[in-house]
Amino acid sequence: MKLRGFKMHRFYLVSRSLFQVSSLKLITWNINLDLELISMLHIALLEPEIPPNTGNIARLCAATFTDLHIVGVTGFRMDDRTLKRAGLDYWDHVNLRRHIDLERLYDSLPNSRFLYITTKTDRYYTDWQFASNDCLIFGRETRGLPEEVLASNSDHCLTIPMPNKKVRSLNLATSVAILLYEALRQLGAPPK
Asked: Which pLDDT score is estimated for 45?
């Protein structure tokens, strides 16, 4: 018999004009989760810029019971029509958390290892041993993670191999899917 329950989650909705935060509102959401199937992983997006990418990642997180953390100011409003369309009707199944900055993300996950996904390292994700509670952090679509974040965490930076050196990077949602499913595979998550 599977236990079902309600869990309260708080997240910050940030809407933004081109360069500034225009409003900050705390919202409480009731989410009905299957408590036996909650993922042991976290996905964090640092200042995502493209609504359909974030919507597709939200749908991926809903499908795998993985917590989604949005860090910093987004390049779009969280009620954006294209964001909602990409996430389809799965938003009620996403455990979405908002954080003002990376420090708040770190504080909210005291038992997690933080892994930084970048094109600026030689360590392949396939050479990494993922663990329960790992948090995979992805940067902006146009610039990736800040250099200072990568420099201070170089021992936890991972990349996806791309044999064609003329291609600078993969789509953000594609990269999240590759890393998340490898981590789930290593942790023995059964396919359903």
From this structure: 96
Domain regions of the chain by residue span: 37-186
Low-confidence ranges of the chain (pLDDT < 50): 1-37
The CATH T-level fold of domain 37-186 is Alpha/beta knot (3.40.1280)
- pTM, full prediction: 0.77
| Pairing state between β 21-34 and 4-16 | antiparallel
Q: What is the pLDDT of residue 44?
A: 97
Which positions ≥6 away from 14 have C-beta within 8 Å?
21, 23, 24, 73, 74, 78, 98
